[in-house]
């Protein structure tokens, strides 16, 4: 099932829908008026998906009008622009995640463990708390790989040692919809201990008990 891209995939404004449904389709000015509004939306980088939705409305509802025919042609260009925009945003997300991974590595090397939150990276390792290109936070979870470890003792006895230092972490981008799974801008990116892994969730199980800090 395709999940809606809530923060990125805009819907046609309610006012425009109401205008379309309330006005007579015989009004020759309406197709051009809606097309002009769609054209205006294309000028905004964050409203191209909204413009596409309105163009599709014009092309479908008024297929034989001049505005409908022009909307059909414009849809090909909009699709290309949207795909390029998606690729650019995805690239920026991965770049931000790599920069965050590098900061986490440097923190661990100097402090002996990973931070309990990304806020601890600021300002020494990062200028600001990292977030996605659409303004959402990353999911970060540090953990201890082996909370309880068996250690050889004297005369062959085995004793248990409790580890409390964070030596592992998850760093996840849940996509623009903030939900697991999805495609395009809703796609997930998952980092486990400094390496990108499969974008399919759920995350690997964290061993228990974990220290409380």
Describe the structure.
This protein is an alpha+beta fold and 213 residues long. The protein has two domains: 14-84; 96-197, no CATH class. Helices cover 38% and strands 13% of the residues. It contains four helices and six strands. The strands form two sheets. It has a four-stranded antiparallel β-sheet with strand order 1-4-5-6, with helices on one face. Helix 2 (29-41) packs antiparallel against helix 3. The model is unreliable at 1-15 (pLDDT under 50).
How do the strands and helices of this protein lay out in sequence?
Elements lengths: L13 H9 L6 H13 L6 H14 L4 H46 L27 E5 L4 E5 L5 E5 L5 E6 L15 E4 L2 E3 L16
Antiparallel strand pairs: 1-4, 2-3, 4-5, 5-6
